[in-house]
Amino acid sequence: MKLTMFDVDGTLTNSNEIDAQCFVAALKEAYNVEVADIEWSKYKCVSDQGLSTEIFEDMFQRKPEREDLNRIKNSYLNSLKKEIARSKECCPEIPGAVSAMQRLKENPDYAVAIATGCWKESADLKLTTAGFEFNDIPMASSSDSMERVTIMQISLERAITKYRVDKFEKVIYVGDGVWNVIASRELNFHFIGVGSGANKQKLLEVGARNIVTDFCDYEMFMNVLI
Asked: Which of 56, 89, 122 is the last residue of a domain?
């Protein structure tokens, strides 16, 4: 059995833009921190907990306490909920992703897991809004660790327990960020990129070789997955 592990933002859900918008609003609301633009790739830990920690340290020259991170997280979640209440179209699926994941779940040769840099609560909210059925899928998130590699390792451990295997024949990570490529390489996971245009070029520059624009062509995705 092979394991396909998915990222969320930019991979399953078209939520990178609303995610950045809500994150900036949360920092402003929680600590009056002004962040004009978030260039995700410049941070060491590209996860909600990691970004919150690094930005907090830069601004206040101390490590955040748990209550500091919770304050940012709660502000972020409130902002995200308000945006979704205005329009669910702010967080749609990447075209074809809901169907592709469901079909993959039904394939006896594959197991499915999620490893995301989102906090667990925001990942659940985005996936639900986009129409995914994911409650039976093992997931690890930024609520488990700020480190992307650790998040992916935890997801793998939960998948091994869920699917009752000693190990998987192959682990494929599907993601849209350069940090996904780097973490996959460190863990010796295979990698499939999701992106087009400038983002596709960034993935190619860090060594990604298999990249899809979306999941509309399921057979093509499966050909890459094999």
From this structure: 89
164 CB-side CA count, 13 A = 0
Q: For the chain, what's the residue count?
A: 226
pLDDT score of 67: 95
Instruction: Tell which residue, 59, 67, 46, 75, has the closest CA to residue 142.
Output: 46
Residue-number span of the structural domain to which 27 is assigned: 16-89
CA distance 173 to 198: 21
On whether the CB atoms of residues 138 and 157 are closer than 8 A, the answer is no
What are 25's two structure tokens?
């609003």
DSSP bridge partners of 139:
114
| Rounded Cα gap, residues 212 and 12, in angstroms | 12
pTM above 0.90, yes or no: yes
- Radius of gyration over every alpha carbon of the chain, rounded to an integer in angstroms: 17
Inter-residue contact 95 to 130 (CB < 8 Å)? no
| CATH code of residue 162 | 3.40.50.1000
Structure token pair of residue 224: 């890459």
Residue 175 pairs in a beta bridge with: 193
Least confident interval from 16-30, 155-169, 204-218: 16-30
Q: Are 117 and 50 in contact (CB under 8 A)?
A: yes
Domain boundary among 36, 68, 89: 89
Claim to verify: residue 80 and residue 109 sit in the same structural domain = no
> Per-residue pLDDT averaged across 26-44, rounded?
79
Alpha helices in 106-217 (DSSP H): 120-130, 148-163, 178-187, 197-205
119 and 136 together in one domain: yes
